[in-house]
Specification:
The structure holds two protein chains of two kinds. Chain A has 14 helices and twelve strands. Chain A is α/β, with parallel strands linked by helices. The termini of chain A are far apart. Chain B has a two-stranded antiparallel sheet with strand order 1-2. Classes of the chains: A alpha/beta, B mainly alpha. Chain B: Keywords: Membrane, Transmembrane, Transmembrane helix.
C-alpha cells in the first residue's frame, strides 16, 4: 500500500518527536529486520482475537524499523497452552508479544492451576476496555432495580467460565442475592439466548452486546436492566460506564438500597476485580525484562498507531465505543493488581473454589 | 422484501465482489480437499485481509469458503476413506466402498449433485425462514438439546451393521474418551494429570484422522495395488451419479431440510449432522442390506445435509450473534470488523447484507459444486494408481492436518495412537463410527444433562419438547429393528432360492 507511506512516516515522525529522547536513538534500529510474533492463545474469531489481529495489523508499521507482526493463534486448554508458551518457551527479547483477555489476566492473577503466566513479570503495551451490564427477567416480578432483593423464583445465572464472569459474580455476591449458578454455557451469546428463552433469569453481557441484543427485550417489557458493573477510578470510587452513562452502577445501586456504600472484603474484591477485567478485555503484553530500547520502540509504535487515522477508523468498530488504553493509563492495570491484599485474593479463590470447584496453585 | 433480494444480487454482481466470492470458493475447495483442514482454517487465513475491505466483498469471500468446504471435503472421504473435514465423516461409510468397486466417479457425481441441491435448499430455507427462525432456535433449551444427543446416540445401532454388541462397546469407549479433559460443567480436569495438552480433551480432527486414515493407508500398502479393486473404466460414472441423486430426489430434499434444522440449533455442533443424516437414511430404508457396502443413498443423504447445514448455522449466527459452528465464529469476527452487529435488527438495518450472504451462499454452492464436478473425473483416476505412489503424499497431508490442531508434539502422538486403535478395530471387525459418535456426543450429553438438572431439577423430563424427541428416538430405533427383520426374512427367502450366489463382499470399511 504505497499511498499511505507518507502518512505513516509523518505519524512515526511525530511519535519520534514526542517520545523520550533517551531510548529512541537505539530504539530506531532495534527492530530493524526483525519480525514480531503475536501469540493469541484463543481460537480465531472471538473479541480478544479480533483485537489482537487489529493491533498486529497496524502496530508494526509504527514501530521504528517497521517489523512485521505475525498473529498466531496458539490454542488449547482455555488459553493455558499459548500463555505458558509465552511465559516460558520464547525468547524474552521483545520479538514475541501476547494478546490476553481480561479473564485470562484474572486467571493469571489468581494463580489458576496449570497457568504459569506471572503478570508481575509482564508489561502491558496497549489494552482496550469493555463494560458490562447485568439484566433481570421481568418474570422475577420486580419493577425497579432497587427492589432487587425482593426478586422471586429460581434466580438462575448462566456461567460460561466462572473466572471469566467473576466481576458479575462478585457484584451479585455484594448484594448477597440468592442466585443459582448454572455452569456449562458455551459463551455469553448462549446465555443471552437462554435468557430470552426464559431458562435464565439473570444475565450479564458486555455493554455493546447488552445494547444490541438485550435492550430489545427490555423494550418488549420482558427484561429490565439491573445495573452496569461500571468502572473504578484511581481513588476507588465507582465511575459510570461511558457507553451507558445513564445507567446506575452496582455500587451506586447498593448505596441506594442500603443507604451506605458497600464495605468489607467483598467491596475490596469488587474494586480489584472490576478494573482488572473491564480495563483489559484485550491486553497486549510484553515481557518485563526485554531490552530497554525494545520497550521504547514498542511504546513509540503504540503512540504512532493510536494517532494514525487509518488505525482509528479500523479500530472504531472493534473497540465498540471505548477508548483504547495506552501510555500512562496502562498504569491502572498494574495498580489494581498491587492494590489487592492477600485476604482479597484468598476470598476470591475461596469463592470460586467453593461454588465451582476451581483449583489454584 | 423482493426489492431487497434483487438489489442484493446487484450488489454482489460487482466484479470485485464476485472475484472475492470465487477466491473464497477456491480456498474452500483447497482446504476441503486437504484432510484435517476445514472452513475455520480457511477463514482464519483470510481474516487479516478483511480490515479495510468492503463489507459485501468480505462477506462474499467468507461465505464462499464456508459453502465450498462441504462439497470439496467429499474427495478424500470417497476416494481414500479419509474424512476431508469433520463434516464429511459419514460419507466414508458408502462412498469409499463405491470407490473400491471402481465407482468413485459415480459416488462423487452423486455427492456433488446432492451437495448442489442441498446447498441451494439451505440458501432458500435461510431466506424463507430467517424472519421466523427465532422461535425455532429458542425452542431448544438444555433439556431438548440433551434429548438430541440421545437421538444421536440411538444411531449407533444402525451404524454397527450386524455387530450391534461390538458397536455398543465402541460407542461406550467413545463416550469414555470424550470425558478426557476439562469437565463441561465443573472446573475439573479428568485423566489429564499435569499434562496441559489434555485440558481441552482430545481433538475430533485427530481422533477421526487416526481412526479412519491411518488404518486405511496401512492396509492399502500391505495389500498393494490401487484403491479401486476392480479396474473397470470410469466411463460416464459421474453422470450416473447425478442420475442417482435425481432419482432419489425426496431423499435429497428430506435430508437437506434435516441438515438445515439441526444446523440451526446452536449448541449441537455441526460435526454430528452427517452422522445423524446417515443414520436416519439407513434406519428408514426398506432395504438396507447394502448400506456400508456402497449404497449410493448413504452418500446422498449426508452430502445433501452437510451443504444445506450452512444455511442452518447462519440462522443463529445472524439472528443472535451466536456462532452456529466454529467457522461461523469467524464470520462474526468479520461482521464486527465491518461494524455490523449481528442480531434481529440485522433484518431491518442490514437487510441487504443478509441477502448478500444468502446470494453468496447460493452462488458459491453452484460454483463450488460445478468446479468439484469438473475435477471429479481427473481426481477419481487417483484410485487407479498403485497406492504406493500416492501414499507418501497422503501420509504427509494427514500428519500436517493433525499437526495444525495445536502444533504440540502430542498431536502426532495421539494421531499414531488412534491410528493403531483404528487398525486394531478394523482387523477385529469392530465398527469405528460408533466410537466417533460416542466421542462427539460425550461432552454434549454430559453438559446438557447437568444443565437441565441445575436449571429445572427433574421437572425437565416432562417438557413437551423432551417427550417429543424421546418418542422420535424410540420410534427410529424400534422402527428400524422391525424394518430390518422384515428385510432379513425376505433376504433369507431369496438365499434359499439362490444358494450358490456370490458371497456378500466383506465390509472392509468398518
Amino acid at each position: 500500500m504505497p499511498k499511505i507511506r507518507p502518512l505513516t512516516a509523518l505519524a512515526a515522525g511525530l511519535a519520534f518527536a514526542t517520545a523520550s529522547l533517551a531510548g529512541t536513538a537505539q530504539a530506531a534500529d532495534y527492530y530493524d529486520g526483525k519480525n514480531i510474533r503475536m501469540i493469541i492463545p484463543f481460537s480465531p474469531g472471538g473479541g480478544t482475537d479480533t483485537f489482537g489481529r487489529l493491533i498486529s495489523q497496524y502496530l508494526g508499521r509504527h514501530i521504528p524499523g517497521e517489523p512485521t507482526i505475525v498473529a498466531e493463534n496458539v490454542t488449547g486448554a482455555g488459553g493455558l497452552l499459548g500463555s505458558n508458551e509465552f511465559a516460558e518457551r520464547v525468547d524474552q527479547d521483545g520479538t514475541t508479544l501476547m494478546t490476553a483477555s481480561g479473564h485470562l489476566n484474572l486467571r493469571a492473577f489468581l494463580g489458576l492451576k496449570g497457568l504459569r503466566l506471572d503478570l508481575n513479570e509482564l508489561e502491558p503495551v496497549v489494552a482496550s476496555p469493555m463494560g458490562h451490564v447485568t439484566a433481570i427477567s421481568t418474570e422475577a416480578g420486580i419493577d425497579d432495580s432497587s427492589e432487587l432483593l425482593e426478586a422471586r423464583g429460581r434466580l438462575t445465572k448462566g456461567i460460561t467460565d466462572p473466572v471469566g464472569l467473576l466481576e458479575s459474580l462478585v457484584a451479585l455476591e455484594m448484594f448477597d442475592l440468592e442466585y443459582r449458578a448454572v455452569p456449562g454455557y458455551g459463551g455469553r451469546g448462549d446465555t443471552r439466548i437462554a435468557f430470552e428463552r426464559g431458562e435464565l433469569m439473570i444475565n450479564t453481557q458486555s455493554t455493546p452486546a447488552y445494547l444490541n441484543s438485550v435492550q430489545p427485550l427490555v423494550d418488549e417489557g420482558r427484561a429490565m436492566p439491573l445495573y452496569a458493573i461500571g468502572f473504578i477510578d484511581a481513588d476507588g470510587n465507582p465511575v459510570r460506564d461511558p457507553a451507558v452513562p445513564d445507567m446506575i452502577t452496582a455500587p451506586e445501586l447498593y448505596e441506594q438500597i442500603h443507604g451506605e456504600m458497600p464495605s468489607g472484603t467483598i467491596w475490596e474484591a469488587f474494586k480489584v476485580t472490576v478494573p482488572l477485567v473491564q480495563n483489559t478485555r484485550g491486553t497486549v503484553w510484553a515481557h518485563g525484562d526485554i531490552p530497554e530500547e525494545a520497550m521504547a520502540a514498542l511504546r513509540t509504535g503504540v503512540e504512532g498507531m493510536v494517532n494514525d487515522p487509518e488505525f482509528q477508523a479500523a479500530a472504531a468498530n472493534i473497540l465498540e465505543g471505548y477508548e483504547i488504553m495506552w501510555g500512562d493509563d496502562l498504569g491502572q492495570i498494574k495498580a489494581s493488581m498491587e492494590a489487592a491484599s492477600p485476604e482479597v485474593l484468598d476470598f476470591l479463590r475461596d469463592m470460586l473454589n467453593e461454588r465451582f470447584g476451581t483449583e489454584f496453585d | 422484501m423482493l426489492d431487497a433480494l434483487i438489489n442484493a444480487l446487484w450488489i454482489l454482481l460487482d466484479p470485485f465482489r464476485l472475484m472475492m466470492l470465487f477466491a473464497g470458493v477456491a480456498i474452500g475447495i483447497a482446504v476441503g480437499i486437504l484432510p484435517g483442514l476445514g472452513g475455520l482454517m480457511g477463514m482464519a487465513l483470510v481474516l487479516p485481509f478483511l480490515f479495510g475491505m468492503d463489507a459485501y466483498a468480505g462477506v462474499a469471500l467468507l461465505i464462499g469458503i464456508a459453502a465450498a468446504v462441504p462439497s470439496a471435503d467429499t474427495f478424500p472421504s470417497v476416494l481414500m476413506g479419509i474424512p476431508g473435514s469433520s463434516g464429511s465423516q459419514a460419507t466414508i461409510m458408502d462412498g469409499y466402498p463405491m470407490a473400491r468397486r471402481g465407482e468413485a466417479a459415480r459416488a462423487l457425481g452423486a455427492a456433488f449433485t446432492a451437495s448442489l441441491i442441498g446447498g441451494l435448499i439451505g440458501a432458500l430455507a435461510l431466506s424463507a425462514v430467517v424472519p421466523f427462525a427465532r422461535p425455532l432456535i429458542l425452542a431448544f433449551g438444555s433439556p431438548e438439546l440433551f434429548m438430541l444427543t440421545l437421538l444421536g446416540l440411538s444411531m449407533i445401532g444402525v451404524l454397527s451393521g450386524n455387530r450391534p454388541l461390538k458397536g455398543m462397546l465402541a460407542a461406550v469407549a467413545g463416550l469414555a474418551l470424550g470425558t478426557i479433559g476439562g469437565a463441561p460443567v465443573a472446573a475439573e480436569y479428568r485423566f489429564a494429570g499435569d499434562f496441559l495438552y489434555l485440558y481441552d480433551g482430545l481433538s475430533l480432527v485427530i481422533v477421526a484422522l487416526g481412526l479412519f486414515a491411518l488404518p486405511e493407508i496401512i492396509d492399502l500398502l500391505a495389500r498393494g495395488g490401487a484403491i479401486a479393486e476392480r479396474s473397470r473404466g470410469l466411463g460416464h460414472g459421474w453422470v450416473q451419479g447425478a442420475k442417482d441423486t435425481l432419482h432419489h430426489k425426496w431423499l435429497v430434499v428430506r435430508h437437506s431440510l434435516i441438515g438445515v434444522a439441526i444446523g440451526a440449533i446452536p449448541g449441537m455442533g455441526s460435526s454430528i449432522i452427517d452422522w445423524v443424516n446417515y443414520g436416519i437414511a439407513a434406519q428408514t430404508s426398506k432395504d438396507r442390506s447394502q448400506f456400508g457396502k456402497g449404497d449410493v443413498r448413504g452418500v446422498i443423504a449426508p452430502e445433501s445435509a452437510n451443504n444445506a447445514k450452512e444455511g442452518g448455522v447462519l440462522m443463529p449466527t445472524l439472528l443472535f450473534g451466536v456462532p452456529g459452528s466454529s467457522a461461523m465464529a469467524m464470520l462474526l469476527a468479520a461482521l464486527m470488523i465491518f461494524g455490523v452487529q449481528p442480531g434481529p435488527q440485522m433484518l431491518t438495518r442490514d437487510l441487504d447484507l443478509v441477502f448478500v450472504i444468502i446470494w453468496s451462499l447460493a452462488l458459491a454452492n453452484v460454483f463450488g459444486t460445478l468446479i468439484c464436478l469438473l475435477l471429479s473425473k481427473p481426481i477419481s483416476r487417483l484410485t487407479f494408481i498403485p497406492f504406493q505412489f500416492i501414499a507418501p503424499v497422503i501420509i504427509v497431508i494427514v500428519v500436517v492436518g493433525a499437526w495444525q490442531e495445536t502444533r504440540h508434539w502430542a498431536d502426532l502422538a495421539f494421531l499414531l495412537a488412534f491410528g493403531l486403535l483404528g487398525w486394531i478395530m478394523k482387523r477385529s471387525g469392530m465398527p469405528r463410527p460408533p466410537l466417533l459418535i460416542g466421542f462427539i456426543l460425550s461432552g454434549l450429553a454430559e453438559r446438557y444433562l447437568w444443565m437441565s438438572y441445575n436449571l429445572y431439577d427433574w421437572e425437565w423430563l416432562t417438557r413437551p419438547g423432551v417427550l417429543t424427541i424421546g418418542a422420535l428416538a424410540v420410534f427410529l430405533v424400534v422402527g428400524s429393528v422391525m424394518l430390518k427383520r422384515s428385510t432379513e426374512r425376505r433376504a433369507d427367502a431369496l438365499q434359499h432360492t439362490a444358494e450358490s450366489g456370490e458371497p456378500a463382499p466383506r465390509e472392509e470399511t468398518r
